[in-house]
Design goal:
Elements (H helix, E strand, L loop, with lengths): L2 H9 L4 H17 L5 H14 L5 H11 L7 H8 L3 H10 L5 H10 L2 H8 L6 H10 L2 H8 L8 H13 L1 H7 L7 H21 L6 H23 L5 H10 L4 H10 L3 H12 L3 H8 L4 H10 L4 H12 L8 H10 L2 H17 L1
C-alpha cells in the first residue's frame, strides 16, 4: 500500500488513535520536503486544519513541537495551535520564530495565565507585547519578564513590574538585576530592597552580628545605584585593572564589579583565574555552569564581598535561563565558610596540576 492509499484509508477511520496516526502521517509528508512552495504549504494548511478537528491534545502537541522550530510553518495551523490549550500551545508560544507581535498580543489578551507565562519566556519580546503581559499577568508572569533580559520594557511596563516587586521578593530579586531599569524606578525600589534584605538577614541562622547585618542592609541600599552607574560606563581594560590591584589602588572585588557589570565575562574569568591560580577554562565552566554552588565556592574562595558576589551572579544569570534568585543564593553564600571554599579550590588546583 502506497503512502497516498494509506492516508486515504486513515482518513476514513474515526477512532482517536487512527485520526492521530493520520495527523502524524500528514505531518511526516510535510516535514519530509526540504523546500515547499507557497501553494504546497497552503494545501497542507487546509488539510491539517481539517484533521485537527478530531485529534486528541497529545497529537496536537506533537505537531506544535515540530512546528515550533520552523520559520515559515503553515500559517492557519500555527495560529490555531498557538491559541490551543497550554499543553499544546506552550512550545509555540515560547519558541516559534513565526509568531509576531500581531499574533502574540491577541493571545496574551484572551488566554490563560500559563499562556502569558509561556510568552514571557520568549527569547526576545517587544515593548508592545510586554505591556500587555504585565497588564494582564500575575506575579509569575511579572517574574518571568523581570528575569528575561531579552524582554524590552516600556517605562509603564517597568512601573507595573515595580508594583509587583513591592509585594513579591522573587520579582524584586529579578527586577533589580536588570541593566535597563530606569533610574526613577530604581530609586523607588531602593527602600523596598533594603526592607526585603533586612527581613531576610534577620532570618539567617549563620551567626551574623547585628552590626554586620546592618552593614549589609546599607550595602543593599547602594547596590542598585552602583550597578546602574557601572553599567552606564564601559569598564577599563583588564590589564589596567590588574595594575591597579597590584599597586593596591583598587580592590579585587571592585574590579570584579566593574568587569561584571560591563558584561565582560572573559575578563572576569581571567581575573578569577589569576586570583585563584586556576586555568580560565576551569573558572568559566565552574563559575558560569549549571551548579550555582560552584559559583559561590569560587567567589567565596576569592574573598568577594556581597556586592561583588551579586555582580558575578548577575553576569552568570544573564547567560542562563535557569536564573538563580539572588535572595536565596545570598543566604547560602553567607553560610559558606571561607576556609571550606579555599580547601575546595585547592583540591581543584591540585587536580588541574596533576592532570
Amino acid at each position: 500500500m502506497g503512502p497516498v492509499d494509506r492516508l486515504l484509508k486513515l482518513a476514513g477511520r474515526r477512532s482517536h488513535d487512527e485520526r492521530a496516526a493520520l495527523l502524524r502521517a500528514i505531518a511526516d509528508m510535510f516535514f519530509a520536503s526540504a523546500e515547499r512552495s507557497t501553494t504546497e504549504t497552503a494545501l497542507f494548511d487546509d488539510i491539517l486544519d481539517l484533521v485537527l478537528e478530531e485529534v486528541e491534545p497529545v497529537a496536537r502537541r506533537e505537531l506544535a513541537e515540530r512546528l515550533a522550530a520552523m520559520d515559515a510553518p503553515p500559517r492557519r495551523t500555527l495560529l490555531r495551535l498557538a491559541g490551543d490549550e497550554i499543553d499544546v500551545a506552550e512550545s509555540l508560544l515560547t519558541n516559534s520564530p513565526a509568531l509576531g507581535d500581531d499574533d502574540l498580543v491577541p493571545i496574551a489578551k484572551r488566554r490563560s495565565e500559563p499562556h502569558l507565562l509561556a510568552i514571557a519566556r520568549r527569547r526576545l519580546l517587544s515593548e508592545r507585547v510586554t505591556d500587555v503581559l504585565v497588564s494582564h499577568g500575575n506575579d509569575n508572569v511579572a517574574g518571568a519578564l523581570a528575569g528575561n533580559d531579552g524582554a524590552r520594557m516600556s517605562d509603564d511596563g517597568f512601573a507595573i513590574l515595580a508594583r509587583h516587586a513591592v509585594a513579591n521578593d522573587n520579582v524584586l530579586d529579578l527586577l533589580i538585576m536588570r541593566r535597563d531599569l530606569p533610574d526613577k524606578v530604581a530609586t523607588e525600589l531602593l527602600p523596598v530592597l533594603a526592607a526585603s534584605m533586612h527581613a531576610r538577614l534577620e532570618n539567617l541562622d549563620v551567626g551574623i552580628p547585628v552590626a554586620a547585618a546592618c552593614d549589609l542592609v546599607g550595602e543593599a541600599r547602594s547596590l542598585l545605584a552602583a550597578r546602574l552607574r557601572a553599567s552606564a560606563t564601559p569598564s577599563r581594560p583588564l590589564e589596567v585593572l590588574v595594575r591597579l590591584i597590584d599597586r593596591g589602588d583598587l580592590s579585587f572585588a571592585a574590579a570584579v564589579v566593574e568587569l561584571a557589570d560591563a558584561d565582560h565575562i572573559v575578563d572576569v574569568a581571567a581575573l578569577f583565574a589569576r586570583r585563584l591560580k586556576l586555568g580560565s577554562d576551569i573558572v568559566v565552566s565552574n563559575l558560569f555552569g549549571t551548579d550555582v554552588t560552584l559559583t559561590m565556592l569560587i567567589c567565596r574562595a576569592a574573598g568577594l564581598d556581597v556586592n561583588a558576589f551579586s555582580a558575578t551572579l548577575r553576569l552568570r544569570n544573564r547567560r542562563r535561563r535557569d536564573h538563580a534568585a539572588p535572595g536565596a543564593v545570598l543566604k547560602d553564600y553567607l553560610a559558606v565558610p571561607p576556609d571550606l571554599a579555599a580547601k575546595v579550590i585547592q583540591s581543584v588546583r591540585t587536580r588541574e596540576r596533576d592532570g
